[in-house]
Amino acid sequence: MLVDDVIAVLDDAGVARTAVAGVSLGGMMAMGLALDYPDRVEALIPICTSATMDPGAWTARVQAVRYGGTEAILDLALGRFLSPEFRKADPDASDHIAEGLRRMSNDGYAGCAAAIRDMDIYWRLREIEAPTLVVAGDLDTSTPFEGHGQHIAEAIPRAQTVHLHAAHLAPLEAPEALATTLIRFLNSCNTTAPESVSERLPSASSTIGDAL
Question: Do both 65 and 44 map to the same domain?
Answer without folding.
Answer: no
